[in-house]
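quick one, 281 residues, struct below
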Amino acid sequence: MTQISILGCGWLGLPLAKKLIEEGYSVNGSTTSENKLSIFKDLGINPFLVILSEVEGALENESVSKTITDFLAKSETLIIDIPPKLRGSAASFPTPLEMTFVKKIENLIPFIEKSTVKKVLFVSSTSVYGDENGVITEETEPNPDTESGKQLLLAEALLQNNRNFETTILRFGGLIGEDRQPVKFLAGKENLENADAPVNLIHQNDCIGVIQEIINQSKWNEVFNAVAPFHPTRSAYYTQKAIDLNLALPKFSSEKSNIKKTISSEKTERVLNYKFKPEDY
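---
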């Protein structure tokens, strides 16, 4: 039975693990919450408590080192799906010593190098492109304007430049799902900006579907944007969603949008032959 390790079995990683198990894979799943270990076990996921640290040498602690080593053991593929959990503008970009997310990935890499892992799928974000206008493809030069976007881009490079394993970067747009719909935070609010800016969203089901295709088709050393190819305006999309969910309508400013960024998933559709599911949007 082929084994896959998923670093970060949260909102996306947990249902992904369940789907991979259904497909016949053995899955090692990590969490930072001890109370989730029994839940993972009940679902058939091999549970591991993995807490990465940005502190130099912190992962060399014997028990911590053994846990990470065991988590990666016998897996050929590693999926990294841990969010930076960073906020801030370009003006507040951290110094290299404060690059906490990047340091966590940097501290993890030696464990990957010593393991059986030969393929890494890194879940990133289209935030690495910043607020560029026009159609954004994988060929567009990244220009992050948030702290998390900058650290994601640096983490991408650390993994891509390592020759001990092959890395594919998967850049997701705004994440939505049955339990995750941004209109719930916009309902009833007024003077919302960028009314006619296109939305760039991806449903949890499509996130999982794209990851499955990358693994099943062995598409490594690639970069993929993953955003549903449906781009209504913010005002049109969220107004309709509020109606569908019987929520107070959001009210958008009449001022012209200054952001007209459309993320293209043409490569994902073409190379992976992937069909996004319009009914989920």
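The first helix runs from residue 13 to 22.
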